[in-house]
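Section 5.1 Outputs to date
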Amino acid sequence: MGLLLAKSDLESILTMKDVMEAVEEAFRQYAMGTVKMPLRPVINIEKYNGMMLYMPAYIGGMDALAVKVVSIYPNNPTNYNLPTLSGTVMLTDPKTGSLLSLMDGGFVTAMRTGAVSGVATKHLARKDAKVVGIFGGGVQARTQIIAVNEARKIEKVKAYDVIPENCKKFCNEMSTKLGIEVVPTNSPEKVVKGSDIIITATTSKKPVFRGEWIENGTHINGIGSHHGPGIRELDETTVKKAKIVVDSREACLKEAGDLIDPISMGIISADHIHAELGEIILGKKEARRSDDEITLFKSVGLAIQDAATAIKAYEIAKKLNVGKNITI
């Protein structure tokens, strides 16, 4: 018997603060060496411009064992009125191997992706950061802003999306939800200039802004396009001038076009990566050296984020008697 947790169940019990705490602990455990997490296999479905990812992980220090199956189909919103990302998380009892829970993977992914940027912002952004510029107006963009607002006292958000209607809807929703100023802009340059924190949450295959526009002291969260060479949201100027922190060196050097391309062009080397996020959390590596430093957190998304979020959701659901018991 397992516990079925639908999206509505998860929405009713999971807060961003909860997920950020779980994700931060997962990265701490990762840096401590208690994690087993093979690199995820990816199946590209070229015929339909989609991909399937299979993401298993075990976090020993949290006793969390889970696998997520997730799909990424960029054409879904415009062609089928469906989300770009969908999936399912299976949480398993590490003591017995039996099923604990099946839960909606789309909501888990959105929350844990926002949460990791919130954790990175907590450790890397200037303490007085209050203006955010964001590229993208989808589900991921929403949880990004929620998480960053949890990490810093945000006063204003400037948003840009290639579909203006999406951007306006995003701004209206988020300004109402968070009680802060969230405004649409009509150019990438306006998003970047004057922003203390920049977030890229798009499916773009080419850079969405020019690195020359970035001002000293900016922190960047790059969480969108990342699956292989030639696919990137950030240009080589941005990457070269920033102190780079990643979720996983191994995964980013395999999947993050934002880093793979500049390395292949000889603009930077793999040594340009300063640290993994877990090393920053543990204090093994320094975070921001000064208020003038430009920092970049590059994430390709790790299965430990899903496992940590899943075990947190399961524990809260059991306590609150949320969800439906199922037998398979």
